[in-house]
Amino acid sequence: MTAVTHETGALRSATLQERLVAALPLTSVYVWLSLVYGYEAWRRLTPWLFTDELELTQLARSLAATGHPARRGEPFNIHSLYTVVTAPAWWLGSVAGSYAAVKYVDVFAMTSVVFPTYFLARMLTTRGWALFAAAGAGSVPALAYSSYIVEETWAYPYAALCLLLCTKALVVRRRGWIVAAIVAGLFAPAVRGELIVIPIVYVLAAAFVFTSSDWARARRQTWSPGDWLGTIALVAGALVLAGAIASNHYIEWQYVSNYYKHRAVTLGNWAAGSFAIGLGLIPFFVGLAGLVPARGEPRSRELRTFRCVGIAAVIGFGLYTAMKASYLSTVFATRVEERNIIYIAPILFVATAFVLAQRRVNLAALALAVVYTLYLVVGTPFQMNVQLYSDALGLAILEQANRFYELTPSAAQWILLGLLLGAAALVAAVHRLRGAVRLGAGLAAVVALGALTWNVTAEIAAAAGTISIGGSAANTLRRPFSWVDEIAKRKPTIYLGQGVGDQDPEWLLEFWNRSISAVSSLDGTIKGPGPAGAPNVTPQGQLYWTADPADPGKIYDYAVEDWPCVDFAGTFKRRHLYRALADRFHEWRLIQLTHPNRLRATCTGIYPDGWSGADDSTYFRFSGASSGWLRIKLSRSNWLPSPATILIGSIGESDREPALGTIRKRISLRLATHGDRVVWLRVPASGFAVRVAIARKFVPRDLAPQSSSDPRTLGAQISYRFFVKRP
What we know:
Blueprint: H1 2-43, H2 52-66, E1 70-71, E2 74-75, H3 81-86, H4 95-111, H5 114-122, H6 127-137, H7 152-172, H8 175-191, H9 197-211, H10 214-220, H11 225-249, H12 251-259, H13 261-278, H14 282-290, H15 301-331, H16 345-358, H17 363-379, H18 396-405, H19 409-432, H20 437-477, H21 483-488, E3 493-497, H22 504-512, E4 516-521, E5 536-537, E6 543-544, E7 558-563, E8 566-568, E9 570-579, E10 585-593, E11 599-604, E12 617-621, E13 628-635, E14 642-654, E15 657-671, E16 676-683, E17 688-694, H23 700-703, E18 717-723
Parallel strand pairs: 3-4, 3-7
Antiparallel strand pairs: 1-2, 5-6, 7-10, 8-11, 9-10, 11-12, 12-17, 13-16, 13-18, 14-15, 14-17
């Protein structure tokens, strides 16, 4: 009895050891890729993809702090389970520590796509080729998102898991697999809204499996022409009904399907083109061809089911991408939306692995796929005028080649066309030489190695772009990043700006300083995510957020003021210089506020570069401790001369905002083309307002189109500075 037990234990130990050894290659792929992406995440100093990363951070922080999702204190929907998963990271003490935790968790999560891709490929092919598919899906350019705070980091592997479960359930048809697939599919939209496509893919895949079954094919052989016409009519009616239902529930679908069908096709192809370029073209056209049966290949339920699921996924995610890109072009901007189609990458790599392993492909399907890919290469904008196109990381390899090697779009197109034709010839040769086992296998290995090399290079290019932009963002904010938190200690702090032309510095400040609970501006130039409405201000400078100044609604302990045009009453605590437009240094000041919160002075109508705009500029000095001097500097900065008028008066009120009241003094002067004009005004301790009106405003783009593209209407460069004693 003891001997039998010993033998059984030894057998179990040997089996476990064999399993561990078998798991080692896939685990190694995961570990090495995670190390690469972890290094990239470490080098990414700060988020910069705003407002995406800031909004998801706000929601996760509010969940961690209160258990309820909110943006800048205003309740909001939970958005996705990504915010729930990342919320615990914000329990850590510092923003830097929490940000690092989120990045590394995202890296491990997104890289895990190798596991469902591997097991999906193992249903069709050998371990070696399944490892190729897993490595390919785990090294596409979109893996550079692994260091971002975006939903793709979890949605990409989760979509691959759903496709695996769907395929497995349709193959084995056992209760456990079916239940797992259904639960995962219903849960998918909570991971990311776009994954509403997953249940649709399930339905399409089941329909394709049914219609491609032996029973269905046998039934179709008995159909008359009338049966075929009736079936076509039923399918067309079902499509019309589905479109009507979608239009009734989704305004985006209704808008695009009724008015922008051509735009959907064009922008959908742009996304597919960027995706294909990022994959190095080979997995794209070979993967598409691999979804079509080839003559003489071994037939199996697994292969037929995989193709049904794959075709359904290509249709579902392709259609979603086209419709979303088209809709965004009407409400936001015309974009290359590759990030919405990346979810079919595991399908294409598995199909490519199967084709190369079998060394057999449907030549007609291959030719059509090559022609379509050629069309995409010719028609897709490469966006090589930017450092990194955040919605289409597949283009990063071309953008970085342009940046470092001065590759032109024309040269890039010829390179891609040469790559396409050469790769197509190799794949065709692999098919023709399948009888010559060693030569055919060698060519297949060369094609696979080339595809992986391109993908890894493209991912590194995308990561290099985001690391570089992150470095520039860090130089914009400048260290220490969390300078507000060091003093405010999470006490309620408001950021108040004026004339904000580039909100990136504010977004960075808001991310790195959790004390900032509200963001606003005097002129509406600060935007979301979350509420950013301007406060009401009394003629005495008090801030209030209700209809009654006696009940201000919100009281803050600290304020970050966009100095000098925002000047709070209170105790000065710290100043911080940051870079803004034209790489100029601007100043923020942290003030410990009086209660109720009150402004000492403000100026409006001035852009960040110092120019006044179409509505001129006004300076308000609310009640102070003593009289003093106001210095006004004026310049036309080499533009045409202009008369100017300075109006001095009391502070009135208009729509709960300060306004120029009774005019007490008027000064007329003329601004020359060259040189500055300095005006000193003796001003009282009581509140006053000063307005500078420029008579001859101009648009730089109209006056000097060869040297300026500035479309703004400008008056003069103006600065105001109050002194108790005249220097």
